[in-house]
Amino acid sequence: MTRVKRGNVARKRRKKILKLAKGFRGSHSTLFRTANQQVMKALRNAYRDRKKRKRDFRRLWITRINAAARMNGLSYSQLIGQLKKA
Fold first, then answer.
1. What is the dihedral of CA 39, 40, 42, 48, to 10 degrees?
2. What is the largest CA-CA distance in the chain?
3. Quick check: pTM over 0.85?
4. What residue ranges do the domains of the chain occupy?
5. 39 Cβ neighbours under 8 A, 6+ residues apart
6. Mean pLDDT to the nearest integer, 38-49
7. Using CA atoms, how far apart are residues 22 and 34, in angstroms rounded to an integer?
């Protein structure tokens, strides 16, 4: 039998991935290979959506400010233009 000198390193790596996959459904949380794929996908989506959340909230804020500005007889662009002049 061949000697494995890095078994503890591999086990640590697998445990880390399976820990990140906790809460996933079915074999995605128990089998290393599928868990690894799902963790990679989840991390990629999380990164993308952290950027997207900033855009979404900006759109929401602009919509709300525009609605409030229109109640006072201004559009959003007019309000921002006047704020920049002030």
1. 160
2. 83
3. no
4. 7-85
5. 17, 20, 21
6. 99
7. 12
